[in-house]
Description:
alpha+beta; Triger factor/SurA peptide-binding fold; four-stranded antiparallel sheet
Amino acid sequence: MFSFFRRGLTAKIMLGVLGLGLLAIVVTGFGTGGSGLGGLGGAGGNTLAVAGDEKVTSVEAASFAERELNNARQQDPELDMGRFLSGGIYESIVNQLISTKALLSFGRDAGLGVSKRLIDGQIASLPDFRNVAGQFDEMTFRSVLASQQMSEVEFRERVETSLIEQQILLPVESGARVPQGIALQYASLLLERRTGSVGLVPAAVMPQGPEPTTAEVAAYYQQQRSRYTIPERRILRYAAIGPEQVANAARPTEQEIQAFYTANAAKYGAQETRDLSQVVLPSQQAAQQFAAKLARGTAFAQAAAEAGFGAGDTRQAGRSRAQFAGVTSASVATAAFSAAEGAVTPPLQSEFGWHLVKVDKINRSAGRGLDSVRAEIAGQLGTQKTQQALQDLVTRIEDAIGEGSSYAEVARQFGLGVQQTPPVTGAGASASAQLPPEAAPLLKAGFEMEADEDPVVETLGPNNYALLQVASIIPAAPPPLAQIAGQVKTDLIAKRRADRARTMAAAIVAKINAGTPVAQAFTQGGVGLPPVQPVNARRLEISQGGDRVPPPLAMMFSMKRGTAKVLEAPNGAGWFVVHLATTETGDASKEPGLVRSTRQEFGRVLGQEYSRQFSNAVEKQLKVKRNSDAIAAGRKQLLGPGAQ
C-alpha cells in the first residue's frame, strides 16, 4: 500500500524480487556498509565479508544471483546478468547476506537456537510442499528443491537461519505505533484521484532501416559482451558411495543373527507386565493408616480417593519391572512384581515417600522364537553393518587420497562408477544437458573447491556419500561471435527499432508539453500508432494492485499535473507516453476503516524500518568487515571478461 510513500527506499525495495530464493523463508534486512579489510584476505579470495563468527563468500553471492536471475527470467526471458545486476543489485545481495549472517552470529552468541522438530514443522507447514489433499508430500518437497537446485541440507540451514532471525526481529517490529493524525493524512492521500492517458509507441512498427553490416554486428557484440556472458561453469566429477558398494559386507551371517538373538533374550523371551494402582504418601504413619483402612475392607480406589488421589494419579498400566523401578525404586518394583494378582504390598519407602501398590492384573506374553524374528534381526543388523561398512569404506578412501592416490586410482581401487556433470553454473543451469538430480547436492561444495584440489568425500545424507572433484572450470565469458551472430544481429535490429521508437515518443511528449492535444500529437507521429487509452484511478486502487499495477499507471501518480513523460515498455516492446490531466484531493475523515487499516499498515512498515535499524546496529556492534575489492571482483566474475 505504501510503495508511493517510500520513494527513498526504491533501490532497496528492488530486493523484493530477490528474497533468499525459495518461499520467502528469510527475513529481509539491509546492511549499512563497512570499511577496512581486517583479515578478509585479498581480492582473489572468496570471502566478501565477515560478520562475527560468520562469513559471506563469493560462492554464496554468485549462487544467490544466478538462482534469482533464473527466477526473474520467468517474467523476462531476455534478461541477462548485466541488466539484472545493474543499479547496485549485486552489492544489495551482498548486503542482504551480510545482514543475515550478522543476525545469525548475534543470535547464536545470545544462545538462540532452533530444534530439528521446529524446522520439520516449519517445512511441513509451507504450502509449496503440500499435495492436492493439503498434506505435506515428500515427493513434492524433493521436486521443489530440485527445481531450485538446492539440497535439503542447504534448505534446512536457511529455514534455521530464518527462524533465528524471527526470534530476534519480531519483538523489535511489534512495538511500532503510528499517530492517528499521520494515518489520516496518508489515508486521504490514498483517496486522491487522477485522470490522464497512456499511449504506446511500439518498436515493432518502426522501420528496420539498412541491414546491419558484419562490422556493426561485431561492434554491438563487443559493446554488449555482458549481455551474452555465461557465468562461470564447472564440470564436476563424482562417484556415488552407498549401500551397493558394501552389499556383501553388510549381509549378516547366521552366527551373527543367533548371537544378537541371544544377547537380546529379554526382548524376545517371555514378557510380563502388570497393571498397577499406587499411592505415595508423605509419612510412614499415613501409609500405615491407609493400609489399616484396606484391612478393614475399604476398596483401594475408594481409599485412594478419600486420601485425595484421582484415578489418573494412581493408575500404572502395562508396566514392566524395569519401567516401574524407573519411576519408584528397585525395592518397590521387586515387591510389586512379587505380589499375587489382587494383592497389595506393605508400605515401602523410597526417595519419593511411602508407597502402597495394588496388583490389578498380571499380563504375560509368550516369547518369540528365532525363526519368527529372523527377518527383523537381519534387517537391524544389516542397517548397522551397512553404516559401519560405509564409514570404514569412506575412511579407507580418504586415507588413499591422503597418501597421494589420484581420483582415477581411488575409483579403480574401490570399484566406484565415475560420472561427470555437464558444464553447469553454481545455480545448476546448463545449456547443453539436464543436471542429474543426484548431482544437485554437490554444486555448493563443487563451486567452493579449487581446480587443482584433491578429491573429497561429501556426505549427502544417511548412508549416502560421493567422491567429488572439479574436472574443469570454464571462466565466465560470452560464446564466440560466430556461434551467436544471428542472435546478435536480431538484437541489434531490435535495438535500432527501440531507439527510433524512443525518439518518436520523446517528440510526442515535447508536443504535448508545448500544448498540443494528446490525440493530435499521436496522429502527427507519421506511422500507425495504437489508440491512446484514457486513465481514471485513485491512488488506493493503484496501491492495492501491488506488482500487478501497470508501470505507466503507477508513473502517473508521481507526475506533475498537465505534463507528459516517456516510460520504457517491458521486454523492449517500445515506449509509453504517459500524460496526467487532472488531480482531485481525497478526504479520509469519513472513512474510519481506511484510516484504521492505513495506521496498521504504516505500523508494519515502521516495524520493518525498526528491524533495519536494529540490523544496522548489530552489524556495527559486530564490527562487520567488508572486502570491497573482493566484492567488486565477485561482481566482475559474474559479468565476465571486459565488465566494468
